[in-house]
Every structure is written in C-alpha cells, then in structure tokens.
Design goal:
single chain, 154 residues, alpha+beta, Nuclear Transport Factor 2, Chain: A, five-stranded antiparallel beta sheet, 6 helices, 5 strands, globular
Length: 154
C-alpha cells in the first residue's frame, strides 16, 4: 500500500500545474480592444513574402533591416529593407528583394516603393490570424487601411 502512495503527490502536482486558476493569461488575450501587431509579427510576414519563399526554395537566405527613416509614417507601419543574404543556386543578380511596409493595425504588407499591397494566399492566412489574435475589428481595419506611407511632415 505504501508503495502506491507516491502517486498521490505526483497526481496533485500535475493537477496543480494544469489548473486554470494557476495559469496567468496575458492582458492582450483578455482584452477585446484592438491592439497593434508586434515588430516580431511583422518580421514573420516579411519572412513569408513570395520572393523570400522562392529564394529560400533555391537554397538562398533572406535578411532584412527595419528602416527608421523619420520621413516614413512609423506610427502606422513597420518598414523593412529586404535582401538576399546569399542567392543559393541563383549566383547572379541584385541582393535587393525590396522595400516593404507592414501596417501595424491591419497586418497588410505593402510594397513601399510602389505603394501597392502584396496579395498572397499565405500572407492573407497569416493576416487573418493576426487580425483575430489582436481583436482588430472592421472599424479598425477601415480606419487604418488607407494610411499614407509617408509621415504628414513630409
């Protein structure tokens, strides 16, 4: 009988760690107010750009740096310069993949040179997940969807 009693504290410790009352829920998951996507989430979108996926499929690697140009509308967007760190099987060509902006409130990715949205099924799927996770409603999408890429001071 004593040999089987070791299981009681074991079961208690498992139940205590699985108990919902003990788990802390981040404030962003309990609030229904819309919140901006994070810089990391924007970087994930950059990683999933179609040109980046094609380069990685050929054995290349992709890099990016966030632009801090004060003339850009950094209140509503994260801006990235995206480049090929190496081309893999593609030995020639420019290292530049492009300049892109990720809207902090809609998760939309835009080519910031031509001010055009990137339409891609994988990006659209991730954007739906981000919009849902950040409680971004239709009113917020409408409010922020047509924000200019350049700051008002320009």
């Amino acid at each position: 009988m004593w040999a089987k009693l070791w299981i009681v504290p074991f079961i208690f410790s498992i139940t205590a760690t699985l108990s919902p009352a003990k788990q802390e829920i981040p404030a962003s998951q309990t609030s229904s107010a819309p919140s901006q996507i994070s810089p990391l989430e924007a970087e994930i979108e950059i990683y999933l750009l179609p040109d980046c996926r094609r380069l990685r499929a050929k054995g290349g690697t992709v890099g990016w740096v966030q632009s801090l140009n004060p003339d850009l509308n950094r209140e509503d967007y994260y801006f990235f310069f995206v480049f090929a760190e190496n081309h893999g099987q593609q030995a020639e060509g420019s290292v530049t993949i492009g300049n892109f902006a990720v809207n902090r409130w809609t998760a939309e990715v835009r080519n910031s040179v031509f001010d055009e949205p990137l339409l891609d099924p994988e990006l659209a799927g991730l954007q739906r997940i981000l919009i849902h996770g950040h409680h971004i409603d239709e009113a917020t999408l409408k409010k922020y969807e047509s924000r200019p890429l350049w700051s008002a001071a320009k």
